[in-house]
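Sequence in, structure out.
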Amino acid sequence: MASLARCLLVCLFPLVILSLGGLPSRGSAMGLPRPPPSMNFTVAVEGYVWCKGCRYDGYVQSKDASPLQNAAVMLRCRHENSTWSLWGATDASGHFTIQTAKLVAPFRSRDCTAYVLGSPVRACRLDLKPRWNKGLPLKLRKFVPVSDVGLQALYSTGDFLFAPNVPGKC
């Protein structure tokens, strides 16, 4: 009986994969298909900035953190001999979105990093994630249709975390 089940698994698995459209192609993020090489698209990057362990407005108990409003966020991309940067800031929920205004294909996420240049709250300036002067890489979430441009690649950085300079002193 076990050998019959093993045989069915080995024989039917390729059929199931083919019926679902195959395995994700190499180079695609999270199994998302890449846009055609000739297509240009804009880029949006989003993430959050938090103060861990402090109970300010908007405190989220499950994260034990409060959002940091007005934190300066920079997206920097370097490719070969060129560098460009875009700036943004967090809203009241600690969320930021930075969008490119121009078409940037071919865009390689490994060329870009997001940085938070410090906490806007004096009592919460110890950087936990990432450590000082380090940025977070971009992770492709999805491609979004945009009426004016056609397509936008939406990336995420995850969370930037700060903590109180003196533990327990927010």
